[in-house]
């Protein structure tokens, strides 16, 4: 039987600014190679920078039409000195050699899309983790 502790070890992020800096450098190189430019809505950036955390946690909900969305979002936040958000990532990324470590240290937490086994325990662990992130004013 899978324990709550095992679920936590698999699910939780391991946020690390040094890893975010390395990932930022890598994404800068990657994006310069594949894109002509990345266009940023500076008005939106100013609103995010001015977010009053006493009003609650900032939750960003991209359309997820592509996996690149959460990478670009984190890259832009990092570039503008905004704390990088925690990102819900599919558990599929855990099977990618070094990628899952870099994603986890950059704020990704891993969720199962179809949790059938241990459903109530998994839901309880996920709810507690999300509550912790929201109460701690982590961007999501």
Overview of the molecule:
This protein is mostly helical. The chain has one domain (4-135). Helices cover 50% and strands 6% of the residues. The chain has 6 helices and 2 strands; from the N terminus they run H-H-H-H-E-H-E-H. The chain has helices at residues 4-11, 17-34, 42-49, 68-79, 99-105, 119-135, and strands spanning 87-90, 108-111. Strands 1-2 form a two-stranded parallel ribbon. Strand 1, helix 5 and strand 2 form a beta-alpha-beta unit. The longest helix has 18 residues, at 17-34.
Sum up the structure in keywords.
two-stranded parallel ribbon; mainly alpha; single chain; 140 residues
Brief overview:
The protein has 6 helices and 2 strands. It has 140 residues and is mainly alpha-helical. The chain has one domain.
Topology:
Layout: H1 4-11, H2 17-34, H3 42-49, H4 68-79, E1 87-90, H5 99-105, E2 108-111, H6 119-135
Parallel strand pairs: 1-2
The termini sit apart by: 30 Å
Mean pLDDT across all amino acids: 85
In the residues, how many domains can be counted? 1
Strand-and-helix sequence, N→C?
A: HHHHEHEH
Shape: globular
Q: Tell me the fraction of residues in β-strands, as a range.
A: 5-15%
Strand order of the largest sheet: 1-2
Radius of gyration: 16 Å
